[in-house]
Amino acid sequence: MPALQPAVPLNQHLRANCRSTRQDGRVQIISLNPADTSDVVTTLDAPSVQDVVEATRRAHAAQAEWAKVPAPARGRVIAAVGRLMEANKESLAALVTREIGKTYAEALGEVQEVIDTCDFFLGEGRRLYGQTVPSEMPDKQLFTFRAPVGTAFIITAGNFPTAVPSWYIVPALLCGNSVVWKPAEVSPAISHAMTSIFHAGGVPEDVLVTIVADGATTGAALEQVLEQRLVQKVGFTGSTAVGRAIGELTGRHLQSACLELGGKNPMIVMPDANIDLVVEGALFAGFGTSGQRCTSLGTLWVHDDIYDEVKTRYVAAVQSAVVGDPRQDVLYGPMISQAYLEAHERNLELVQPHHTVHGSTGIGRITSANPREGFVGDPEAGWFAHPTIVEGVRPGDALYDTETFGPLVGLGRFSSLDEAIKLANGHGYGLSSAIYTNNPEWVWKFRAQVSSGMVSVNNSTSGAEAHLPFGGNGRSGNGSRQSGVWVLDQFTRWQAVNWDYSGRLQKAQMDVMELPSDPEFRL
Amino acid sequence: MTFSPPESVDVVVIGGGVVGCSAAFHLAEAGQRVLLVEKSAIASGSSSKAAGGVRACFSDPVNVAIGKRSLALLADIGQRPGGEIDLHRVGYLFLCTTSSQLDDFAAAVEVHNSLGVRSSMIDVEQAHQLSPLANVDDVLGACWSPDDGTCTPEAVVQAYAAGARRCGAVLMTNTEFVGADVRDGQIYSVEIRSGDESAHVRTSAVVIAAGAWSTSVGEAFGIDLPVEPVRREIIVTGPIPGVDPAVVARSPMTIDAASTFYFHAEGRGVLAGFSDSSVEPGFDLTRDPSYLEKLVELAAFRAPHLVEAEVTGGWAGYYEVSPDHDGIVGQSADVSRLLYATGFSGHGFLQGPAIGEILRDLILDCEPSIDISPLSATRFQTGVRRDERHLV
Ligand SMILES: Cc1cc2nc3c(=O)[nH]c(=O)nc-3n(C[C@H](O)[C@H](O)[C@H](O)COP(=O)(O)OP(=O)(O)OC[C@H]3O[C@@H](n4cnc5c(N)ncnc54)[C@H](O)[C@@H]3O)c2cc1C
């Protein structure tokens, strides 16, 4: 009888290649479904540096005409885009689930955030207020106008392939800018769908140009387009390391980029906290989206008095959480791509002997040899990872100040609020933070002293609403804010206008009318 | 209809059966520009003649993996590409009547389980409970594969064809592949013809999925695809007198491992057939008047109730048979980007979904998730024969 065992394990090896070089030398980007790597979502030819520069040139050339469209008319375009996003919500969300593995429920939420962003900015088209300002001279008027900055080059990450880009693209377009959008390489089909919806809503083709390229190509192209003054604003959501490089590059061109970088978001649990709420919030913040949000929970800091109870209940909740096929009712699906899984596995090497690991039957990739209880679907088909709680994290540990961007949550303890605030700030990130307490004194003290741009009270670190300022400080960003009215300052420049109709040269400060006063007067 | 083929595409697929349409869908969905040519109508070849059995329970690990993947794709067809195919996962039941068959299926069960297919060997009583229409007097045991089943072949092909079109593929029916411009191992164009009109379409990649007609298509590229057409017939019955229709509807695909006699629920009756080894290869679909007689003889013993039922239909189609009765899939070593997928010898319908995906990966130069190198046509030169033992 011939050997029955296959020479190579079938169906069990992971498909790694996201790029392949074809015989004709063209490099192809291949986007795989991370929950089922046999499924190729789309392929496209990787652009050259020159292609990216040309795309930017087109957007730059189209900007002036777009800026001439009255802002309320641009607002109508955003309204149409929003309606189309709504009409295509389910199919776009299904594509998000398929291409980056976000659960369908979260994907629907993400697309809703795009719709909300459109809803907010369609009205801004009829405001985009400037001011009339009194002049110190007679027969002279002063005004302020919001002027578009020009062409924006927007680089976004793969974890929020629709919502985060919309935070940039929608206000940038509304304000009269043209946009070159460089989405993550892991989500080309989603970006194509998004772009098609913008164009169908009435955004002229060249006013929004989308081009999927890798980091090296993008970086080289960015140097050229800044040098050639084709770009006036760079927006970047991604890692702190790349954000730093972009900050340096744009700084050399006297531009300040809009940078939304990583986080190591703390959750502080005070002794009076509602523990049910803590467990639920920390479960979603830590492991929702496989921990791949910039606002994901970094370390759960628990007060000594309730440490044991919180720990026991949190560990139990994580152990019983359902992981698997993102189309089903699960807490989280696969990692976004193989690279994210590998990065997570490298982060697991940061676990030290004084740490204790909880949360699952194993760590790292879920396979049939390293199974997760209750897994939904076939773990071998995709890039799935066990949830991991690392207990005993403290300052000095790599895990204290390394953003892990995966299903890994640190757990540590503290004895006073002052200590907790030190722990919350000590790593230098400052994106999001949370405190669980009902004591107003503690809330206000924490708010005032924590260094993060966003603070949650009795709520998880993630889950921004579309009209509050979003952004961080320190290693999390350069202070730029997105969303709501605050983002307008990213995509417009104040222009000050004075109009003198006196027929004379009235010199400011010198020709100012002076009315007599009596400085000696006393009652 | 006007004859206006695209001037140039990334890939030309020859054949509009399950294999060609699945390949066209997966390629177009992945962003490739695809032209599929079908000399007659979509699903006019073997694909619409299949019994509709879909299974992972083979003896060979490559076939198990392909079957498993196909089942996953068929279960998901409502989402990708969309459509209703009446997939009934009633299971496959191979009845064994000799101890060597028992050993052989038991070994296969180990292969299944090692690849995540949950099958098992069961005793006669369990087999009878699962398939009450079967006479198990001489049965020693059975191989039971609960996740297998049946679905409607025509619907599967049409779903992939519609999906391919939606993704931008051009599907031309009544359009035949007639020749190719191949120089120095490179494909430059293919020639296609519809009635008295013809055209050359530029392409650098071709997929041969021409079923029983693949040998002559292969010749146009100078490659040897040894496939012979062998007529296979099927009988469909009305309700079975004296048997509860619910029992019939629940029947798994039941197969007598020794004779290949099989049946499964179809409409209100059953669909039954067997592979008549006396049929000579050749393009001839004239139905054999003695086929029904032979089938009734097999049924009278293995599933006596069936004999009471009225024959309401039936048909003949071709198995596209390879020398070792297993699929021929791979890419030519001499002509760059020439792929072939044919010779499935009776299990091409169920392999088509996964094979289409694998063809896409080969075109994209992306390592397929199933290693199909053992299916390469080169095996007929090197003399390594496939050893799939659980054929129907
Ligand atoms: C009675 C019967 C029962 C079966 N039962 C099962 C079963 O239960 N399960 C299973 O998996 N399989 C079964 N099969 C086998 C299955 O039907 C085939 O293996 C499968 O359909 C092959 O698909 P294909 O796409 O390769 O070929 P086809 O469906 O034959 O498609 C090939 C197409 O190519 C076209 N073509 C040929 N030459 C050219 C040309 N020069 N230019 C353009 N077009 C061309 C043909 O017109 C044809 O439409 C059965 C077959 C028969 C006959």
Task: Explain what the structure shows.
The complex is a heterodimer of chains A (523) and B (392). In chain A, α1 (49-68) packs across α7, α2 packs antiparallel against α4 (104-124) and α3 (89-100) packs antiparallel against α6 (188-200). With 523 residues, chain A is α/β, with parallel strands linked by helices. A 7-stranded mixed β-sheet of chain A has the order 13-14-15-12-11-17-18, sandwiched between helices. The longest helix of chain A has 21 residues, at 104-124. Chain A has 15 helices and 20 strands. Chain A folds into 2 domains: 48-261 and 477-496, Aldehyde Dehydrogenase, Chain A, domain 1 (3-Layer(aba) Sandwich); 265-466, Aldehyde Dehydrogenase, Chain A, domain 2. The N and C termini of chain A lie far apart (119 Å). In chain A, 52% of the residues are buried. In chain B, α2 crosses α9 (348-364). The mean pLDDT of chain B is 96. Chain B has 10 helices and 19 strands. The longest helix of chain B is centred in the C-terminal third of the chain and has 17 residues, at 348-364. Chain B folds into 2 domains: 11-49 and 154-227 and 324-380, FAD/NAD(P)-binding domain (3-Layer(bba) Sandwich), CATH 3.50.50; 92-146 and 229-321, D-Amino Acid Oxidase, Chain A, domain 2. By secondary structure, chain B is α/β, with parallel strands linked by helices. Chain B is globular, with a radius of gyration of 21 Å. In chain B, the strands form 4 sheets. In chain B, strands 5-6-4-14-15-16-13-17 form an 8-stranded mixed β-sheet, with helices on both faces. Chain B has a 6-stranded mixed β-sheet with strand order 8-2-1-12-19-18, sandwiched between helices. Chain B starts with 10 loop residues before the first strand and ends in a 10-residue tail after the last helix. The chains are: A alpha/beta (523), B alpha/beta (392). Flavin-adenine dinucleotide (FAD) binds at residues 14-20, 37-40, 44-47, 49-53, 176-177, 209-213, 217, 232, 234, 273, 317-320, 342, 344, 346-350, 352 of chain B.
